[in-house]
Structure formats: structure tokens, C-alpha cells
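Subject: design request, 410 residues
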């Protein structure tokens, strides 16, 4: 029996006649009002098992007056778009594959997709817009699975160029689930990791476990599966490298919630006076050696929280500290007394100061003050690094959430 696929030189190729049919389906359009007759019957049937929100969205879009690509009616995959990109561009189509990020402003693709979905949700008075998107994503059988193509086509009207409708819906799915407005990708909490580990113990395969866990924690199945792979690979191993924001959250919650340390300057300073061995308990949770955790607390977390309490979170202390070393003619960081530093910057710790002073011009020979003097113009123009400022603001957000949780408990 002839098939539309042939193997040639171990590469799977599509026959020319099949390729031309696929390309024509992308080029040809038809009114959405005349399409999806099978789906309209399902929506009108009293045995329809779709939620009211999904029925509202689908019925509304099907009654709109716009053209939809023929390939969306058949709910075909767009994997052949990249393969035949040149042929499609030759027809004059303005193909776009990537979506511009939301942080680029109101003209970005992600911003417009989120805006149009929020307007549609308010217009139709949806009870749970997030659950509606999740339910549409779970639809795998015909003709219900065409709903994601319908919604993606509707949201793509405001975008520049021609976009695969299922890619537009996938972008909306990512934005709704784990990319909140004004925040980055939502990390996995320790509670969610516990749910994932329980599902991994209950099921023999990660695929089955990820399906169940995704429903329990309201997450995308792919991201849950990837997280399970990392948890399985890191079991019994010590992690190294940079700390994630999730790990910072675990450290803060350990001290200010579980250990019940006061969320104040006095409470933070009491932790600074503690021993390095106090961090051994949390090292088991983070799967890290307790020494890097202690250094993380001393060099970043504690100074950031103290700066927040003193109202100096955005202070240009990095530049001023180097100028202070020049003023004192400090040969190295050992020549600077912590008491004098804390008179000017009460939120700095000894370890934070040492790490910062060793960081700049470390490849140049000579004393510290001389290196600052030789690079005086560069030092005076020095500002807080945007990544450092962003991380400090994220840490403060986690800290304020913990403070609110403690206030509710009391």
C-alpha cells in the first residue's frame, strides 16, 4: 500500500504531491462561519461534556467574520512550516515563527495575545479563564481538538505576519500558566516538588506521573515532565553552580517561617552571628554543601534584606565602596575595617565587602587603591548591575510574601 512518506538515505521525506497539498492548505482560506460543522453539532448537543467557558469561547469565535486557513479546519500540525518555509515565502506570505517577548512593550506579540485574551474573557464573563485554556489544551479527539486552532486563529488577527494558529495558542498557554504579568517564569516551589516526588513513587513511568502531577499542581505537562527528569537526575547528588530564585526562597522560608526568626534587622543580624554549621539542616533540602549556602546568605541574601529595611536597596554602594578604598589608601580589602564600612553602609557584611572588592580589577597587579585610581573614570561611572538589581528586587518580593504569611498566622 502506497504511503505519503518515503525513506530515502535514512531521512523521512514527503512526496511532492503531498507537499503541494500541505502548502495549498496553508495558502487557501475560507470564512470561519462556513467551517467546523461537526464541531457546531457537538456544541449544540445536550450531551456535550465541555465546560460552559469553553462553549462560550468557541461559539463566540465561530460567529465572527474573519478568514481561517484551510489547514486549521483539518487541525493539521505545523511541523512542515519550517521544512517548506522557502516555498511558502515564494508565494508572498510574510511568515513569522518567533513571538516577541512581553517586556518589549505594548507592540510585542505576547502583550497583544494576553491583552486580546483578557478582553475576550471579560466580554464573555468567563468564570475561570485559566481553567478554560487548560481544558482546551487537554482536548485530543476530533472534532474538539480543533478548538485550539480556532482560538489561535482568532488571537493571531492582531499579530504581524502569518503565524501558525496552534503556536499562537501555545504562546497563550505559556503566558496563562507560568508567565505572570511583570514576573519571569514561575519556578517550582518545594511543595510542588513534594507532589512530583510522590507521583514519581506511585507510577512506574515518568510520563504517567507527569500527567497526574500536572493536574494536581495546575501546570503544563511538559514543564512537569522536565522537572521530574531533573529531580530524578539530582537524587542523591550535591548540586553546584549558581543559586536559583527557588533555592533563595527555600533558604528564607527555612529561617523566617520554620525557625521562626523575626523579620527585622535584629533577626537578620542574629542569623549573621550564627555558626556555619547552622546551615547543615537546609543543605539536605537543597542538595548542596552547607558552605556555599552559608556564603550565599552572607554575601547576598542578608545584605539585600538589611538594605531593604534601611531603605537603601538601590543605593550605588558598589561604586562608593571602591572610592572609599581609594580614600583610605587600602592596599587590600584587609586594610578596611568593618566598623568604618558599616558606619556608611550598615547593611553590608564583611564577606559581602570582601567579595565585592576582590571582584573588580582582579587581573591587574598592584594595590587596591592604586587600581581604583588608575580606573577612576570607570569606577565613577559604575552603577548597580541590572541583573543584580533584578535579583535583589526578586529576593525582597519573596521576603515580603513571607512577612505577610507570618502576619496572617499571628
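Subject: RE: design request

Done. Sequence follows.
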Amino acid at each position: 500500500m502506497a504511503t505519503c512518506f518515503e525513506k530515502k538515505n535514512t531521512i523521512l521525506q514527503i512526496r511532492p504531491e503531498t507537499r503541494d497539498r500541505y502548502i495549498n492548505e496553508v495558502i487557501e482560506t475560507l470564512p470561519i462561519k462556513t467551517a467546523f460543522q461537526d464541531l457546531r453539532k457537538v456544541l449544540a448537543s445536550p450531551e456535550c461534556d465541555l465546560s460552559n467557558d469553553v462553549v462560550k469561547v468557541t461559539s463566540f469565535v465561530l460567529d465572527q467574520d474573519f478568514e481561517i486557513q484551510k489547514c486549521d479546519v483539518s487541525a493539521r500540525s505545523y511541523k512542515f512550516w519550517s521544512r517548506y518555509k522557502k516555498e511558502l515565502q515564494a508565494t508572498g506570505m510574510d511568515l513569522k515563527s518567533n513571538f516577541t517577548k512581553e517586556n518589549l512593550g505594548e507592540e510585542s506579540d505576547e502583550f497583544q495575545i494576553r491583552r486580546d485574551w483578557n478582553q475576550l474573557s471579560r466580554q464573555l464573563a468567563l468564570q475561570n479563564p485559566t481553567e478554560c485554556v487548560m481544558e482546551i489544551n487537554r482536548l485530543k479527539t476530533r472534532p474538539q481538538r480543533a478548538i485550539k486552532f480556532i482560538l489561535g486563529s482568532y488571537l493571531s488577527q492582531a499579530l504581524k505576519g502569518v503565524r501558525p494558529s496552534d503556536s499562537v495558542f501555545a504562546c497563550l498557554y505559556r503566558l496563562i500558566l507560568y508567565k505572570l504579568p511583570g514576573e519571569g517564569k514561575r519556578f517550582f516551589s518545594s511543595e510542588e516538588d513534594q507532589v512530583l516526588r510522590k507521583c514519581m513513587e506511585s507510577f512506574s513511568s515518568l510520563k504517567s506521573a507527569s500527567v497526574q502531577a500536572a493536574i494536581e499542581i495546575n501546570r503544563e505537562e511538559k514543564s512537569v515532565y522536565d522537572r521530574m527528569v531533573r529531580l530524578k537526575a539530582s537524587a542523591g547528588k550535591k548540586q553546584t553552580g549558581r543559586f536559583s530564585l527557588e533555592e533563595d526562597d527555600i533558604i528564607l522560608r527555612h529561617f523566617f517561617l520554620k525557625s521562626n526568626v523575626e523579620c527585622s534587622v535584629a533577626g537578620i543580624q542574629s542569623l549573621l552571628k550564627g555558626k556555619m554549621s547552622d546551615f547543615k539542616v537546609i543543605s539536605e533540602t537543597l542538595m548542596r554543601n552547607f558552605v556555599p549556602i552559608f556564603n550565599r546568605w552572607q554575601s547576598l541574601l542578608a545584605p539585600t534584606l538589611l538594605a531593604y529595611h534601611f531603605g537603601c536597596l538601590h543605593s550605588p554602594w558598589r561604586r562608593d565602596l571602591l572610592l572609599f578604598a581609594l580614600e583610605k589608601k587600602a592596599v587590600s580589602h584587609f586594610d578596611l575595617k568593618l566598623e568604618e564600612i558599616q558606619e556608611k553602609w550598615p547593611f553590608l557584611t564583611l564577606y559581602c565587602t570582601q567579595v565585592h572588592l576582590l571582584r573588580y580589577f582582579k587581573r591587574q597587579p598592584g594595590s587596591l587603591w592604586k587600581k581604583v585610581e588608575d580606573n577612576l573614570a570607570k569606577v565613577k561611572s559604575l552603577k548597580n548591575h541590572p541583573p543584580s538589581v533584578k535579583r535583589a528586587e526578586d529576593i525582597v518580593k519573596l521576603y515580603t510574601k513571607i512577612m505577610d504569611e507570618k502576619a496572617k498566622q499571628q
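The chain has three domains: 5-178, 190-234, 245-409.
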